[in-house]
Model the fold of this input.
Amino acid sequence: MKATEAKLLDFLKKSPQFVIPIYQRSYSWTEKECRQLWDDIVRTGSNDAVSAHFVGSIVYIEKGLSNLTSQEPMLVIDGQQRLTTVTLLIAALTRALGDIEPVDGFSPRKLRHYYLLNPEEDGERRYKLLLSQTDKDSLIAIVGGNGQPKESSLRVMQNFALFETWIAESKSNLAAVCKGLAKLIVVDVMLSRDQDNPQLIFESMNSTGRELSQADLIRNFILMGLKPQLQ
Done:
């Protein structure tokens, strides 16, 4: 296991792709959690005396060696909710900015190409974050600017709409939103398939949150032992 502190945007920018394995729960943050994150971002971005805001850890399994130079996707063990929510916020901000760049580095084009897309890739490799089940197609539609699928993810769509509303209400203060995003800090926790047991780590990290059912544990135990293509 290798853990380092990182700015969330830098972390997203250098990472080729994050994939939420099928054994993970679906995206579940409600308006309450989204509002808390939004308020923290605006508050942090509005105060130059605050240099950073910690939002938790991102735990994932590496496929290559001990760095992020590999172009293989990273399988997320913990941090799906934060990654997805920040992605939805950035996607909403990208649409709202038009041709405006309220803070250097926060033009719509840079936001899309740094944090939402891999512009030189095709197919699913084009997207920085791939969710599972119905969440996946909904997020792809939002990031890619496509129409929603027939079976869309209600939670993904609702939270995206929330961020669109809050951004529209903050048109005169978008610089604070951008600065707040730039100050978000995470702990980047990279696991090694050869040395770490992702199942034990998953159970340990979720032991203090919503209780995992026996079905959750059995499903995770079985699927984690398979290659991603087979899961």
